[in-house]
Design goal:
heterodimer, A: alpha/beta, B: 284 residues, alpha/beta, Rossmann fold, 14 helices
Chain lengths: 452, 284
């Protein structure tokens, strides 16, 4: 057990779940109170002791499935002494399919498991030592079973609510079946190659480390869920900073009055409260093609910020600049808003290639009033201005008026100031310039922002 | 303390106390009792994090002490404070004994105002300490909590160190508006509570509202699960689906359909934009 625990810990760490030694010890200690033959209890125990972040539950589960299925696979050879699987090898696709469907609808877990085993055996064509990932086998089995048409389609005569419920149930059933088939394939692969090797092939990049500049569509959807708490945190931090300031000056009048109850001794001094100003944030975001995936991400940031702060103004630019605060009004659907920005916002003034100098000039002309001494200005962009004049004097005028200016750059820091990048000219005008290519870096920025 | 021999036994007891745990929750609560570790319950608002602490207090027969966190919570409100006014009166009422006697006297327990954390530590009977919405306090206060949670003792300079007479069962809840420090998390068992499955939600509804017909409960749970799937600003919580079930019961509804859902959406959803969105999807 100790051996498997240390190996499991190191797999978790490589999957981006930070597990400290103390936590491993806790987990081992907790195991003393668990019936190890019950896999779900074991999972709960290890999860509660080793995972301390909701986003890490998924990678944990993936690693757990690999590491703690090994034992089961060795203990009971998959295809012997198992009446369902050995007899159903002769069964046709249709027969297995029907049985599986009934089992899933009845949510009969044991039956789904043994039938999935039969299905994987019959249609997966899993070969020992063949270096293909589990996804390939999963795809084969799912295709042979024609899972998509396995469950009744949504009844088009039903009412909208019924339809929505039916489609939810249908998705849930397919998902369930998929889980069990995956589990069976995993067991075979683990028996063949060992847990570490399998875990490494199915390890997904931790969501915090996905490069926002090269994120795929599905990555971005995953990001959408994670970014909300992060911006809420950024929002809370920006607001808190102001509140956490020391109390204001001594309020002599109130102190004297209060001292009456203590016989004239000013034992409990009163202070004037500082006026609390609401966080006042302006975002200025490059949405040009060169940073389009990043722009999608910054727009999510804007969207989330807008829903947190009432006094956020957001501007998008390419070579022209336009205010897009209204597109992201609280409650608006994000995808709709992002679409509108791309279609309607007036961000192209000349040719649709980024021109930072022109943008800053325009911004000063049109929206100078947006920047006040209380403003926190966040600029996002790669600082690549297509060899056009940088106009740093204009940016200096803006940042001088703002309370704080931060620049978030989606490019790797070592590429700054190469080619047409003019970051060097802008860098010193800002209070901080951050490389933000991943959520982890965004988080680091949020932490720093709260200290700054 | 009442001993629960297995997670199943704990689960049954919680059920009798009106809290319906799933296997994971029962397992973590069981471990917390066995390992004497705090539980850090995290998840969306209204999934029953606070209820869990209350139910644990009920089944163990312990008193529940609650520390509601907010921004600006500090030592003097969470731990202890000297009662200045009373001390002052004591000094003024003084006639004999001299300064030393007073100095000893005014820093005695008579002048100490106990706040929830100190109460929990000094209690003779073990109790359940609920630290609610711990993500709202500042880092400094979190450090204070950390010290107490790891040692279960406080040092009051004038009185010395006070150790816990008994080990309290601690439940912290967080809505995750702020990342808690790793040090705090390391000391806790982490319990992520999400929205329940439709089956469990149905059972929760039935246990909360015994007079609710089973078929209606199923319909409500299923409808709520479906509504939660659309991208909403604030998806309906369990508390809201219980409210909704009560509403439907009062209205004498026996089946959930579009019309009644659309009419009563404001019970489930708290933002007009969410209501509009769901209403639109119901109408088409």
């Amino acid at each position: 057990m100790i051996d498997i625990m240390t190996r499991f810990t190191s797999e978790l760490r490589s999957a981006g779940v930070p597990v400290s030694t103390v936590e491993t010890i806790d987990a081992a200690q907790a195991l003393g109170f668990v019936d190890l033959s019950e896999r779900e209890r074991l999972r709960s125990t290890l999860q509660a002791t080793m995972v301390k972040h909701a986003e890490h539950i998924e990678p944990f589960n993936r690693a757990f499935d690999v590491f703690f299925s090994l034992q089961a696979a060795v203990a009971e050879p998959p295809f012997e002494d198992d009446d369902v699987s050995s007899s159903s090898i002769d069964l046709s696709v249709d027969a297995i399919r029907d049985l599986l469907r009934d089992a899933v609808i009845a949510a009969d877990v044991d039956r789904i498991r043994s039938l999935s085993r039969a299905a994987v055996f019959a249609f997966g064509g899993v070969e020992a030592g063949r270096p293909v990932g589990g996804v390939y086998y999963l795809y084969r089995v799912m295709r042979r079973l024609a899972v998509d048409s396995m469950f009744d389609d949504v009844d088009s005569a039903a009412t909208p609510l019924e339809q929505a419920e039916q489609s939810r149930v249908r998705r849930r059933r397919i998902e369930l079946l998929r889980e069990y088939i995956e589990e069976e394939i995993r067991r075979l692969l683990v028996a063949d190659r060992g847990a570490e090797a399998v875990a490494a092939t199915i390890r997904k990049q931790a969501i915090e480390d996905i490069d926002l500049g090269h994120a795929t569509r599905s990555d971005l959807i995953r990001l959408q869920h994670t970014i909300r708490p992060l911006t809420r945190r950024l929002a809370a931090r920006l607001a808190q900073r102001r509140r956490a300031q020391e109390p204001g000056r001594l309020d002599v009048r109130r102190t004297v009055r209060k001292s009456m109850s203590a016989g004239g001794i000013p034992i409990d001094p009163s202070f004037k409260k500082r006026r609390v100003s609401k966080p006042d944030v302006v975002m200025l975001c490059d949405v040009s093609g060169s940073v389009s995936t990043f722009a999608f991400f910054t727009m999510q940031l804007m969207y989330a910020m807008r829903s947190q702060f009432s006094r956020v103004r957001v501007f998008a630019f390419i070579d022209g600049v336009d205010e897009i605060s209204d597109y992201f009004a609280p409650g608006v659907d994000f995808n709709e808003a992002a679409g509108r920005v791309m279609r309607e916002a007036d961000v192209v003034a000349v040719d649709g290639h980024s021109d930072y100098g022109r943008v800053f000039t325009h911004f000063e002309e049109l929206y100078a009033d947006a920047i006040t001494p209380r403003t926190t200005l966040i600029i996002t962009g790669d600082g690549r201005s297509n060899y056009r004049p940088a106009e740093e004097a204009k940016l200096a005028a803006i940042t001088d008026r703002a309370r704080t200016t931060w620049w978030l750059n989606p490019e790797m820091a070592r590429f700054w100031d190469t080619g047409d990048s003019v970051m060097a000219r802008y860098r010193d005008l800002c209070d901080g310039v951050f490389e933000v290519r991943t959520l982890r870096q965004l988080e680091a920025f949020v932490e720093k922002a709260s200290l700054g | 303390m009442t001993d629960f021999s297995s997670p199943e036994a704990l689960s049954v007891a919680l059920l009798n106390a009106g809290y319906l745990p799933d296997d994971h929750i029962a397992q973590v609560a069981f471990l917390a009792m066995r390992l004497d570790k705090p539980i850090l319950a995290e998840g969306p608002a209204g999934v029953g994090k606070t209820e869990l602490a209350k139910a644990l207090a009920t089944i163990t027969g312990r008193q529940l002490i609650r520390l509601q966190c907010y921004e600006g919570l500090d030592e003097s409100k969470a731990l202890y404070e000297w009662d200045y006014r009373k001390q002052l009166l004591r000094i003024q009422a003084e006639d004999e004994g001299g300064w030393n006697a007073i100095a000893d006297d005014i820093f005695s327990e008579d002048f100490l105002l106990e706040r929830p954390l100190l109460t929990a530590i000094r209690a003779r009977e073990p109790l359940v300490l609920l630290i609610d919405e711990v993500d709202r306090v500042e880092i400094e206060t979190e450090a204070l909590l950390l010290e107490i949670l790891s040692e279960f003792q406080v040092t009051i300079p004038e009185l010395g160190t006070i150790g816990a007479a008994s080990q309290p069962l601690v439940v912290l809840t967080s809505n995750n508006t702020r990342e808690l420090s790793d040090a705090l998390k390391r000391r806790c068992l982490f319990l992520h509570i999400d929205y329940p499955t439709p089956e469990r939600e149905r059972d929760i509804l039935l246990s909360q509202i015994p007079e609710l017909p089973e078929s209606l409960a199923g319909g409500i749970a299923s409808a709520v699960a479906t509504i939660r799937e659309s991208a909403l600003r604030k998806p309906p919580s369990v508390a809201e689906s219980i409210d909704w079930a009560r509403t439907l019961l009062v209205l004498g509804v026996d089946q959930v359909d579009e019309r009644i859902t659309a009419e009563t959406l404001s019970v489930l959803l708290k933002y007009q934009t969410d209501i509009d969105k769901v209403a639109a999807s119901l109408a088409t």
